[in-house]
Known about the structure:
- This protein has 120 residues and is α+β, with helices and mostly antiparallel strands.
- It contains three helices and four strands.
- The longest helix has 24 residues, at 73-96.
Amino acid sequence: xxxxxxxxxxxxxxxxxxxRISIMDKVTDQLQITIPQSLVNEFGIVPGDEMSYQSTGDxxxxxxxxxxxxxxxxxxxxxxxxxxxxxxxxxxxxxxAPIQSDATDRGWTRENLYHRGRAD
Length: 120
């Protein structure tokens, strides 16, 4: 197919909607698309980055594999310490909770389950 038969690689529409930008582009003969420079800058995409393609029904979502805003080491360690403390608190609560040893405390017994719903 000759280039004169179709538009190759040109942006045909651009719609700005609040914080989302929609840009229409054509797929090349080699099934490639160009990521607009504004999106490259916004997401910090560089050559060699891995991208994830997700089917969302009637659209394709392209997501960079790397996290958008990576946290620094200090912040990650602080979050880890907080999560560790929350887990320790949960384990202390479980360890100090009274254990129900008598089946009659719950208001029914296993024997009740065997006869439930039968017309004896």
